[in-house]
Amino acid sequence: MEKAHTYIESLIKRKKEGALIFPTDFRGVGTEDAIKKALSRLAQNGALKRLAHGIYYIPKHDPLLGELHPGAEEVIRMLAKKEKIRIRPSGAYALNKLGLSTQVPTRLVYITDGPPKQFRLGKLQVKFKSTTPKKLSTIGEYSSLLIQALEEIGTENISPRIESKILELIKKEAPKKLQHDLTLASGKVNDYIVKLLKKMDNDQLAETN
User: Fold this and answer.
1) Where residue 30 sits, what CATH number does that domain have?
2) 52 and 91 fall within a common domain
3) Among 6, 94, 169, 198, which residue's Cβ finds the most Cβ atoms within 10 Å?
4) Which portions of the chain are predicted below pLDDT 50?
């Protein structure tokens, strides 16, 4: 185990401050138990900081701001990459990402093609919900999140103000990507977005007359 610890410590010293560290980074260096114990010891002596179970980072300091912590989204993206899974913001978090909600979420929910998982990053609770490959096959920058958000909250009782924002997001999406993503949406969400598109076309026609 001591050999694994020494080797892992030497590898970490070569990495940049602020780098994220996962136990899987050291597969082949030693047993799973040896790797975990080495990282735990390095966290105890301050060479690493523990963010969550199985997630560490190399401390980084700014002369003015003090210690800098990795952003939650960066950590989650890296975790998904390490585990070779796809993830996508869901529910209230998707609404916030789209600017449809000003409420700052304390719970970040993602749909994933990987196993379900829950963990904490500081004050944030993170949840991965398993879903079907179909729901992760959307490709639009805006329509992917929008469809997922509408699937969660429903299309009923959406205020005119929010509907106006949704329409602006639809306008930003590439038509081919939007068309592709609508084929993967539920019937209700498809009908709702098609209704908005018709309204947009009618408004543009009225402006030209």
Assistant:
1) 1.10.10.10
2) no
3) 94
4) 205-206, 209
**Token pair in block for residue 72:** 């939650």
Contact 44, 38 (CB under 8 A): no
For the chain, how many structural domains are there in total?
3
- The whole-number pLDDT of residue 204 equals 57
Query: Residue 91: which region, alpha, beta or left (left: phi > 0; alpha: psi -120 to 50)?
Result: left
Contacts (Cβ under 8 Å, ≥6 apart) of 113: 85, 86, 130, 131, 133, 136
Q: What is the pLDDT of residue 176?
A: 95
CB 91 within 8 A of CB 147: no
Residue 153: its pLDDT value, please? 80
Do 40 and 102 fall into the same domain?
no
Cα separation, 192 vs 178, whole angstroms: 13
Domain coverage including residue 8 = 2-68
Does residue 143 belong to any structural domain of this protein? yes
In terms of domains, do 147 and 122 share one? no
pLDDT of residue 206: 46
Last residue of a domain, one of 104, 136, 168: 136
